[in-house]
Write a structure and sequence with these properties.
- The radius of gyration is 31 Å and the shape is elongated.
- The longest helix is centred in the middle third of the chain and has 15 residues.
- It is of the alpha/beta class and about 425 residues long.
- About 25% of the residues lie in helices and about 25% in strands.
Length: about 425
């Protein structure tokens, strides 16, 4: 079965907690701090593998979790890092954030890697909080959470040239004739249920990848027939060979078919409207073809038109050489990844925004940074609480509470921890 889109959940490992420990040595029963750091959590990494052809593996398993980092230990021993998890995907796979639809990565080269969920950072042990004033800190830092998100894996075949056209116009026969691919060929609609790839060889060091995109029909961009499942594969191709049945079999109008297919391509993606196209008039060996050929050339003369017969092999050599010449003239495709969008998505400043608000007579201070601060504070320990207050001042939280109207004695809640405001 050909599977070219999958939704999975990925969860990186949590960082290990820092340790609160002190040296216990002979003649020094209460030595200095000796708590080690926690290990980093494992990340989840996607790896492009040219040996894979589908996303089938992700159809049956959809949830992936990496290892947590180990907690720190006494005697300044660090916890081990969690193991990274590597997931293989076919080359040509786009990685999208499920919630926003932003394309995060385009894995189009064999061996290319992308960290789709980064492991949490290990927490610092109490030895890291020792200074000239705080000699015996009795608090440590917990590990941070690993990233977790739902992502869409979308396979877009990497082919230089794509064969498109209505079902039964001869695309598979053309592919079989000019490459070593062996697609299923028969005289009924939707014989091709998955895209077929083949390499067209022109000469030494001169070749390109040709893809037979399954037959499109009117309404494909809305999901009719096999349309939505396969239109995405046209997006990567640099050149489109638009195959038309010049004989007009099955009472079809070749000119009308050309416009209908292009309308479906446009509805699916504006990118496709700018693709270079060569019209391939197939089945020209049939008697009824000549009348249509004249009409097609008159109507669609602005396009390059090549007459072929997949059945007899007529003009196929010229077609494949001409496609190669056109490829050399076409610039590389526009990237699917918008770097500005991705940077905004991962903007740490945005994620660490501290929100101050007032609700029912008390003040709220919330945000991811404050959640981590609260989690790393031992409120039963004076030094740890003092450190908490110092960070609030250094980060400007106290000033912002004052600007919001907080006065001496007002109730303040920092991520659920309540205390009286002291100006």
């Amino acid at each position: 079965m050909f599977v070219d889109i999958a939704k999975i959940s990925v969860k990186a490992g949590k960082g290990g907690n820092g340790s609160v420990a002190f040296r216990r040595e002979k003649y020094e029963p209460m030595g200095g701090p000796a708590g080690g750091d926690g290990g980093d959590g494992g990340s989840i990494i996607l790896v492009a593998d040219e040996g894979l052809r589908t996303l089938m593996d992700f159809r049956y398993k959809r949830h992936y979790s990496a290892e947590n980092g180990e907690d720190g230990r006494g005697k300044k021993q660090y916890g081990s890092d969690g193991k990274d998890m590597y997931l293989k995907v076919p080359t040509g796979t786009l990685v999208k954030d499920e919630e926003t639809g932003i394309v995060l990565a385009d894995l189009k080269e064999n061996g290319q890697q992308y960290v789709c969920a980064r492991g949490g950072r290990g927490g610092k042990g109490n030895v890291k909080f020792k200074n000239s004033i705080r000699r015996t800190p009795r608090f440590a830092e917990p590990g941070t959470k690993g990233e977790a998100r739902e992502i869409i894996l979308e396979l877009k075949l990497i082919a230089d040239v794509g064969l498109v056209g209505f079902p039964n116009v001869g695309k598979s026969t053309i592919l079989a004739s000019v490459t070593s691919a062996k697609p299923k060929i028969a005289n009924y609609h939707f014989t091709t249920l998955k895209p077929n790839l083949g390499v067209v060889s022109i000469g030494e060091g001169q070749s390109y990848v040709l893809a037979d995109i399954p037959g499109l029909i009117e309404g494909a961009s809305e999901g009719a027939g096999l349309g939505l499942e396969f239109l995405r594969h046209v997006e990567r191709t640099k050149l489109i060979l638009h195959v038309i049945d010049a004989s007009g079999q099955e009472d079809r109008d070749p000119v009308d078919d050309f416009y209908k297919i292009n309308e479906e391509l446009k509805k699916y993606s504006e990118k496709l409207t700018g693709k270079e196209q060569i019209i391939i008039l197939n089945k020209t060996d049939l008697p009824q073809a000549q009348e249509n050929i004249d009409r097609i050339k008159k109507e669609l003369g602005d396009h390059e038109i090549i007459e072929v017969s997949a059945a007899t092999g007529a003009n196929l050599d010229y077609m494949k050489k001409r496609a190669y010449e056109r490829l050399l003239e076409i610039e590389d495709e526009v990237e699917f990844v918008d770097e500005v969008e991705v940077e905004r998505f991962f903007d740490r400043k945005e994620r660490d925004t501290i929100v101050i608000s007032k609700e029912d007579g008390y003040y709220l201070a919330e945000g991811e940074f404050l959640e981590r601060l609260v989690g790393s504070t031992n409120f039963d320990d004076f030094e740890s609480f003092s450190n908490f207050q110092k960070v609030l001042m250094d980060k400007g939280v106290i000033d912002r509470l004052r600007e919001a109207g907080a006065k001496e004695g007002d109730l303040v809640s920092v991520c659920g921890v309540e205390f009286d405001f002291v100006d």
